[in-house]
Each structure stands twice: as structure tokens, then as C-alpha cells.
Amino acid sequence: MENNLSYIEDVLNRYKGKKGSLITILQQVQAKKGYLEQEALELVAKRTGMSTASIYGVVTFYAQFRLTPIGKHLIRVCHGTACHVQNAEGLTEAISSELGIKAGETTPDGLFTIETVACLGCCSLSPVIMIGEKVYGKLTTDKARKIIRDYKKMEMAS
């Protein structure tokens, strides 16, 4: 096994022989790097006795799994009912315009990824975005743009 996959060993050892643990294994492997690289999926397949195609089937079925790296700052835009009626689409467009990428994409510098989600569970604050673990609510498109600009400034200063 290549050294760069050693981060998976403890996860695989913890669930060795436990039926029904594939999703948990994939979640924990993804948590280490932010996405599931091909070599990691092949190792999981080999160690669980499943085919790589079966593993890919699970990964591509569930929206929580990613096959490409995400940016340093993951921006989740809530598109649940409460946010939808409060202009979630406008927020997504404003953020996309500010960063020059579409939802589901990462900026070329690797700093930002935009993701639309079904619900963040903050309906009383709609419309809402989440950057990392921080929630921003009661947003307008102008407020959303300012938040993104502030993150860009912070990155330039560091």
C-alpha cells in the first residue's frame, strides 16, 4: 500500500469484518481529505471484498460523497423551502458571480467551493448560507457578496 493512503488504515481496521459499515467507512475516509480519491476507493474495495464498481455505485448515489477535492472554504447555500421562497437562487447566483464559478465547482485557486443543499435546518434564519461551520442568515444578495469579499480579503491577508 502506498504511504499516502495510510490515513485509511485505522478506519479500515476499525470496521474490518463488520457488515453494513461501508457508508461509515466512506464517510470517515472522506473526512480525512474532504473527498474520496480513486486510490482510496480501490483500497476500500479490496479490503471490504467488494468490487470497485459497487463502491462507485454507492459513492455516486449519495450526494454527501465527493470524488473531487473541495476548496478551503466550502460554501453551502440552502435551497430548502423556506430559503427557496426567500431567494436562495439569487444568493447562489450572487455568490457564483462573485467567485466566477457555478454551484458544484471549485475556484481555480482551490479556496472556494459552492454547493447547494436541500436544507441546513436554519429555517428561521432564511435565506441561509454556511461557510465551513459558520452560519450566515437573513441574507440579501448584497450581504452574501460582502461575506464572500470579506473571505477573499482574509485570504489575501494571510
Q: Which value, in Å, is the CA radius of gyration?
A: 18 Å
- What's the total count of β strands? 4
- CATH class value of the largest domain: Alpha Beta
CATH architectural designation of the largest domain = 3-Layer(aba) Sandwich
Into how many domains do the coordinates divide? 2
Order of helices and strands: HHHHEHHEEEH
Overall 3D shape: elongated
Superfamily (CATH H level) name of the largest domain: Glutaredoxin
Q: Give the class from helix and strand content and strand pairing.
A: alpha+beta
Order of strands in the sheet with most strands: 2-1-3-4
Low-confidence stretches: none
Helix content: 40-55%
What does this structure look like?
It is a single chain. The chain is α+β, with helices and mostly antiparallel strands and 158 residues long. The chain folds into two domains: 59 residues, Orthogonal Bundle (Arc Repressor Mutant, subunit A); 85 residues, Glutaredoxin (3-Layer(aba) Sandwich). Helix content is 48%, strand content 11%. The protein is built from seven helices and four strands, in the order H-H-H-H-E-H-H-E-E-E-H. A four-stranded mixed β-sheet has the order 2-1-3-4, with helices on one face.
